[in-house]
Design brief:
The structure is a homotetramer of 335-residue chains. Chain A is an alpha/beta fold. The first copy, chain A, is 39% helix and 24% strand.
Amino acid sequence: MKKLSIGVAGLGRIGKIHLDNLIELSNVKVIGVMDPDSVALNYAKEKGVKSTFKTFDELVNIDQLDAIVICTPTNTHANYVEISAKLGKQIFCEKPLDLDIQRVKDVLNVVDKSKVKLMIGFNRRFDNEFRKVKTSINNGEIGNPHIVKITSRDPSPPPLEYIKNSGGLFLDMTIHDFDMARFIVDKEIDEIYVKGEALIDEKIKKAGDIDTAVIIIKYIDSTIAIIDNSRKAAYGYDQRIEVLGSKGMIQANNVKVDNNKLYNQNGIMSSLPMEFFLERYMEAYKIEIQHFVDSVINNKPISVTGFDGLKSLQIGLAAKKSLLENRPVKINEID
Amino acid sequence: MKKLSIGVAGLGRIGKIHLDNLIELSNVKVIGVMDPDSVALNYAKEKGVKSTFKTFDELVNIDQLDAIVICTPTNTHANYVEISAKLGKQIFCEKPLDLDIQRVKDVLNVVDKSKVKLMIGFNRRFDNEFRKVKTSINNGEIGNPHIVKITSRDPSPPPLEYIKNSGGLFLDMTIHDFDMARFIVDKEIDEIYVKGEALIDEKIKKAGDIDTAVIIIKYIDSTIAIIDNSRKAAYGYDQRIEVLGSKGMIQANNVKVDNNKLYNQNGIMSSLPMEFFLERYMEAYKIEIQHFVDSVINNKPISVTGFDGLKSLQIGLAAKKSLLENRPVKINEID
Amino acid sequence: MKKLSIGVAGLGRIGKIHLDNLIELSNVKVIGVMDPDSVALNYAKEKGVKSTFKTFDELVNIDQLDAIVICTPTNTHANYVEISAKLGKQIFCEKPLDLDIQRVKDVLNVVDKSKVKLMIGFNRRFDNEFRKVKTSINNGEIGNPHIVKITSRDPSPPPLEYIKNSGGLFLDMTIHDFDMARFIVDKEIDEIYVKGEALIDEKIKKAGDIDTAVIIIKYIDSTIAIIDNSRKAAYGYDQRIEVLGSKGMIQANNVKVDNNKLYNQNGIMSSLPMEFFLERYMEAYKIEIQHFVDSVINNKPISVTGFDGLKSLQIGLAAKKSLLENRPVKINEID
Amino acid sequence: MKKLSIGVAGLGRIGKIHLDNLIELSNVKVIGVMDPDSVALNYAKEKGVKSTFKTFDELVNIDQLDAIVICTPTNTHANYVEISAKLGKQIFCEKPLDLDIQRVKDVLNVVDKSKVKLMIGFNRRFDNEFRKVKTSINNGEIGNPHIVKITSRDPSPPPLEYIKNSGGLFLDMTIHDFDMARFIVDKEIDEIYVKGEALIDEKIKKAGDIDTAVIIIKYIDSTIAIIDNSRKAAYGYDQRIEVLGSKGMIQANNVKVDNNKLYNQNGIMSSLPMEFFLERYMEAYKIEIQHFVDSVINNKPISVTGFDGLKSLQIGLAAKKSLLENRPVKINEID
């Protein structure tokens, strides 16, 4: 069996996760990595990766490279995807492709023409808890979905520097929930209304962003979704989905650190949800990258496409417009 | 100890509950009831009530009557409250006072001048689960409230005839949630946006109403609330509240029929929430009417005032306007 | 409809509960009460009971008295039941009839001859949570029962004075669990082995009793039960049952004070079980006494008979013997 | 850093798990494996293990071998441990060392003299849920332990052939619970009483074994433990611990397949516990073997010693004696 030769570009937090998971796959050979930082490259060397580079060009131009996993900063994504596509490399790219919708469309055109596969890193689609919700809905266990509720809260805000360049809460955080809203019931979104505030940190407000938001989504068929976001839930990372349908309701609840319960005179104490996305979605990242590898090797459809990335961005931009203008915004107003 | 002499007007479902609860209070004497229906009057007679009448005037004009509990149809409330107030009777009236905001204001003026007490029947304020949420917030256990979430779903829609006269979902059902939204964090509401659909029953649509709704509320201080409603949750009556604050989160969950769990090869089955409001709020009704009686006897402030009734109506009308015009509506647009 | 004329003897904690519940029944008239204490009698007078007595004889000899509810101290039970039976009064008596097995047998003989009904106050049989476990088993939902587990723990030990006269943990506390063990699977017990210690309070040990115990019961058909007891669970009253069967498992869990959950950085806190038996079994007491009244009025079988009382006592005495001799004891060794 | 050179003997279900986990450790080199079956050896070859043998002698005699992991059939353990110890190899051996207590003592003597480390494979000690219970107890969160309750049930019985050679339920299954009982409160056991039956399968009875058991354990300090076992819980693998102490109670509950809840008109369905020990204890196996490796490399004490293996066997044999003679048996009766 021929192994898939893969390169990993960008060895930050997510890049290292993908690298580790790829190394464990028996049908993959990680033949090179790229990162401007020597310490990061050493991490890969210790894991047995032979070729390490400081520039993307060096990595992507390795002849025998079949596929590339792009985990570099957001503002490089579009460029690197275009380069890779033109070289005929299969592409996994972390979200988002770009914050500019026209740029994303252009990149997707290049990818289309090059006939390579492009997968976008919406890892939550591969989470066991959420997958089972989707399966339950697909199996008709709750009938027709009427109300989708997504709770998505971080344990603490990212650094201010990050917020200033991320495109703001709707593009750096809620974008996952927008994708989930489409994924979980397999329907496109028609209109969005948001209400957002900076209730947690004055500095976030000064940086032009919000930290608390609630969102109403109308799908094209009148199903409704609600999302609520916070950049800081004191009790930790909160990731829940609830879907009410004509025949019942299905809930994905938080995954706790453990299932212990301590009873004393003050009450019954149980443990908190897993600390943050690295813990909660550890398994999802494994399944995600495995899906990419399998799709490439067996030439099967990718389940999170460039189009999915485009839609989430479009919804995110509509959300920003809604916040600014305090009115419901049709998704197709963003073009 | 002198007992409070009370009359109960209207012996429908709620009227009977109040009658039963009043009879059990040691500081109350139910001296008369009124209902156009003889069967209903017999119900009271069997409970030991001596004076039974077919008209409100007969009941309210009993000299020794201290207080009146009004549970007649909505369209009689305003009139009966005015009559009672002018006669100097203390008043408990089921919500809403009226569906017309000017009429409500006029009635409240009459009540104000007459110096009698008026309590509006928002029973959920007296529910143990919700009370403890409020207490927890008051005690600072979750810090400053950021996001309030209210889930309120009925097990099945009311009769179509009821819907046609009720003022619609926002005035017959969500009005409880509007009151709860104000009550739970003790803040006034500034603006509302709703999205509603008739997803459950075509006939509800034809009757000009909706059966599924989600609502975003902005309080005057930027706290945000979400309400989600359904006229039919297949699994029963769903009454939950969740408040996220700067220091934590507090949840009031459903009260189940029992706490049993059945494990078999298909999964772990637990019991459904209590069937409907009569079961779920049985204790709340007792505490509610006891609060009215105590307030009157000890001349203490009523905790659910005519003003509270007015505000809920105003919010309900703002919700209707938002649905119609698909835009956020300021509460003070309704006047 | 003729009302049942009932007298209540003994107005301690339990006597008052029965009195209150009887007063609310529409087919009952409480025509008299008895207690040596005037304050207790005043309690009844305020509730509207006309005849109050200081001696049992006065009460039981009222001609029109149909039935008597005996809640006096344990050492009077046998005597009072005999007197009542000979006078042809229907009898409800709190457990136990007596601590001496021969005395109990003699009393049951008298009752048998007099043809009156005798119900023993094992209130837990009427608890909603446990009833549903029994129903589930009866419906075959878990197949054949293999292992029954009963957890029964008090929030704090009774007064030492009580312990000295109660017959000890197995007769004052576990006796409820012995009855439950028989009731829940409808099977007689063959053999018992216990292990008990005084781990909570030295004074309990000095009083010749234990405060912590675990018990293995073998039914006549080889089903097995485990009971664990503590006189002091720091987190409150703990009343659970779990039955493993060939097809599944059913659990009755604790009923909590409320269903709230508080999330903060320390964990997720939920509320404690209801404080003690008065709260937890409030509804059960109502259903229990109603069952007695209905059985008498409609001449239907009593569901907790003198025989049930006898069996629990027998098992309790076998438990004491097992503790003393550190060996499994056959129930029929106690005679 | 020098890597520890390890060999794995026996590539059945557990052997493969240890092999996989060892391969992932950066401070380990698996230099050889042994199994009589070629297919099993191929499994190791594909994982990159160079030296594969059909006999234990070949493997253990590799010069550079530092440590050996023994997962061969039970009846070979004692022999292989002795051989390894005499050759100065560090030893990890699956439980039990042997079913004969004298043989175990002899082996432990050999190990003692050879100064090598010996770790016994009680994997549950490394389970996250149970570890946290122990930590909680160590931290004094529940005060002095009074009652320990261990529930341990398999989803289905092992093959009859296995049962015939395993030493029976107490030695093949409960032995884990005996070790847990000692581990969780760090106390030695004084006396045991068991009640066991074959309620699930007649064939198990004919094979001289039982499939359902409850056990009372008295520790040397009068703390009490209860264990309940079943070879077949219809709802799957059930692994719970509950410890009641003077200040509270701590529970380790089952780990479910997921945390979803499905609400419909029949009830609220949640998912079953993880299917069997491979799923439930997957992480525990990793931590276990890592502990062995770390102890060897850093010359630190092993946390599950040969003495622990000896004690569990002794308790298991006492349990068998108790079942046979239907009486409490002192652990030191087994010698």
